[in-house]
Amino acid sequence: MYISLRDRPKTGAPAPPRTKHKVSSVVVTLGVVSLMTDISSEAVAAILPLYVTAALGLTTIAYGFIDGLMQGASALVRIAGGWAADRGDHPKWVAVAGYGLSMVTRAGLLIASGFAAITALVAIDRVGKGIRTAPRDAMITTASDPAHLGRSFGVHRTLDTIGAALGPLLAFVVLWAIPDGYTTVFVLSLGCAVIGFALLALLVPDLRPRRQAAASAPADGSKPAGRPFSWRSVAEPKLRRLLVVAGVLGLLTIGDGFIYLALQSRDGFATKWFPLLYVGTNLVYLALAIPVGRLADRVGRARVLVLGHLSLLAAYLCAGTASGMAGLTIATLVLLGVFYAATDGVLAALAGQLADTSVRAAAIGTAQTVVAVTRMVASAAFGVLWYGLGRSPAMLLVAALLAVAVPVCFLALRGLDTARPVPGGVGA
């Protein structure tokens, strides 16, 4: 493990060298926190599309609204969470607030009844996610070797994805044993959320990026000792280009729930198998998060981010076809896993790479906000498209638009891959 920032000397003396191929204990601990929290959130998310459209009997327009909230409600506070972390130089405690808010909503699900109450709790939970995400990713960036930042995010996302796979699997087991066991899922979800919150509050050190930058600055003043927070640093040209591209691609990224509903509608498999679709995607993501993170470090994070959307395009084509072959269903889940491995942690790593230390959390939060808002719009719009055009035409229309956007966005991000290549190649 790397020596954590908490253990480094607070003088101007150089920090102990990091072991080249290791990952910080801070990153691993944050990964375990995310693992437990994702078991909690994904167990609920895995039953939500089916619950809304089958148990409650609502239309795809209604689900599009809820899915839009899940995608975009966090956007309302992601920038604020990043700003608070940078401004106070205490990203940990901002993250604690976000995880705590989501934990409280798990308890609320046990007593809520009706569409309005559940929708409100989903929105509040996503706000908690928005508060915590940028400070957490800023801590990962601070604790990591810059040359291996993609790998660090890959390790974190791997642990995160283990939780994302176990959550739907947990929901599947409960619904298999108890066909109407939604309350049982909510109870187990609450327990996992409490464990994740406790791990963060008790075990993760209070990393302070600006203080660390000042402590490591040479005494002769040859290196600036951490600039004060300024929104102008977030609006630098390279970051603006990244935000525009992330927004364009986000507008063409519909929620996973729609893709899974398309598969279920086409293939007609039993509803109890529905949560396993999430498991399939997350297992692929789990297998690829670290290798793709290494690839991004090697060949360029901007390239991997944009080209990863080709996998999403292929998933749309597989889900939109009229054929009900099992092979196409499996291929869809694999392609979605590849897409998330190439985009989720890579976006945060790229934003953290381009941003100054003083605005790192705000820059990551801004990029994630752009993606969340545009995906919220995409989900709501796709619900209307499905309702008006039907499953297959709507899916193929979005695929065609994405096919046009990918090469344009690839050209727009040329020059952003300025990080030095990792010696030894992808598998180093």
UniProtKB/TrEMBL annotation:
Span of domain Major facilitator superfamily (MFS) profile: 26-417
GO MF: transmembrane transporter activity
This protein's record includes keyword Transmembrane helix: yes
Keyword Transmembrane helix tagged: yes
Transmembrane segments: 43-66, 103-124, 159-178, 184-204, 242-261, 273-292, 304-322, 328-350, 362-388, 394-413
Compartments reported by the entry: Cell membrane
Keywords, in A-Z order: Membrane, Transmembrane, Transmembrane helix
Membrane topology: Multi-pass membrane protein
CDD domains membership: MFS_MJ1317_like
InterPro entries: MFS, MFS_dom, MFS_trans_sf
GO CC terms: plasma membrane
Pfam families given in the database record: MFS_1
PANTHER family xref list: C-METHYLTRANSFERASE (PTHR23518), MAJOR FACILITATOR SUPERFAMILY TRANSPORTER (PTHR23518:SF2)
The protein, known as: Major Facilitator Superfamily protein
